From TrEMBL:
InterPro entries attached to this UniProt entry: DUF1206
The keyword Membrane appears for this protein: yes
Protein keywords: Membrane, Transmembrane, Transmembrane helix
Name the record gives this protein: DUF1206 domain-containing protein
Keyword presence, Transmembrane: yes
Domain DUF1206: 23-88, 111-178, 204-272
Organism expressing this protein natively: Modestobacter muralis
Matching Pfam families: DUF1206
Chain segments annotated as transmembrane: 20-40, 68-89, 109-129, 149-173, 204-227, 247-268
Length: 276
């Protein structure tokens, strides 16, 4: 019988989709490298762009052939979202199991859904900049938070969202420290030196990204506490908060370099994709 899980398996194993997903992983890496570059400029006074996704897309749009590259990002990131959606369908059957098998399937579904949302968000952001309608990520987040504050229990919902983002940040730090990220990459064809380099990139990149996400969540939580949506200034606000801390330039530089390492790790994932 042709079940959704079987259909998802065929979709996930599609060579065409895998090639597009590789393009998406490269695109994802480029976004992180641009964010790292903007963060370094922020740290050392070499630029005034937003150190976040919108800043990265805006920077790319201003370059020669930038609009064309943005369209490549749109296609690649959308393919990544479809790839993760196939994983959701693949593991959905496991939710009918019991005990540890069910918990394991639920964890994989939650992670796949979260990644699908992230990739779709980035694809839409790239699409807006490719069509000339890009906006500041910080401004969008502040507008969203202001709208949620108008809902019954909106302040509580924003607080929950803040805890979730902080939790994701902590998860990234733990993932980097434990080396669990190596499960996302197939290094069977990699040399010993390549595997060692990939592992080092993940050990640096995941904790740095986790710290950035935890700061984003902290600002979101502060917005909920103060009932002020302007406090929810996103990744750019998190980077500027880090810069204002003692030894801020050094701390921001370290985080920026870590985010660059994460971007390079994405390139390695594109070269040695996980076989699902």
């Amino acid at each position: 019988m042709d079940t959704p899980g079987n259909t998802a398996a065929r979709a996930g194993d599609s060579q065409a989709l895998e090639r597009l997903a590789r393009v998406g992983l490269i695109a994802y890496g480029i976004v992180h490298l641009l964010i790292a570059w903007l963060s370094l400029q922020l740290a050392w006074g070499g630029g005034g762009g937003s150190a976040d996704q919108s800043g990265a897309m805006s920077t790319l749009a201003e370059k020669p052939l930038g609009k064309a590259l943005l369209w490549v990002l749109v296609v690649g990131l959308a393919a990544l979202a479809v790839w993760q959606l196939a994983e959701v369908l693949r593991h959905r059957a496991g939710l009918q199991a019991s005990g540890d098998a069910r918990k394991k399937a639920a964890g994989k579904v939650v992670k796949a859904v979260a990644k699908t949302v992230v990739y779709l968000f980035l694809a839409v952001t790239a699409l807006r900049f490719a069509t000339g309608g890009g906006q500041s990520s910080s401004g969008q987040q502040q507008s969203t938070v202001a709208g949620v504050f108008g809902w019954p229990g909106g302040r509580f919902l924003v607080g929950i969202a803040a805890l979730v983002v902080i939790g994701v940040g902590v998860y990234h730090v733990r993932k980097g420290l434990t080396g669990h990220f190596m499960k996302e990459i197939d290094t069977a064809q990699a040399s010993t030196g390549q595997r060692r380099a990939i592992e080092r990139l993940g050990q640096v990149g995941y904790p740095a990204k986790g710290v950035a996400l935890a700061l984003v969540g902290g600002l979101l939580g502060w917005a909920a506490v103060t009932f002020d949506p302007e406090k929810a200034s996103g990744l750019d606000g998190a980077m500027r908060t880090l810069l204002d801390a003692p030894f801020g330039k050094v701390l921001l530089t370290l985080v920026a370099l870590g985010i660059a390492a994460f971007g390079a790790f994405c390139f390695a994932r594109a070269r040695f994709p996980q076989r699902t």
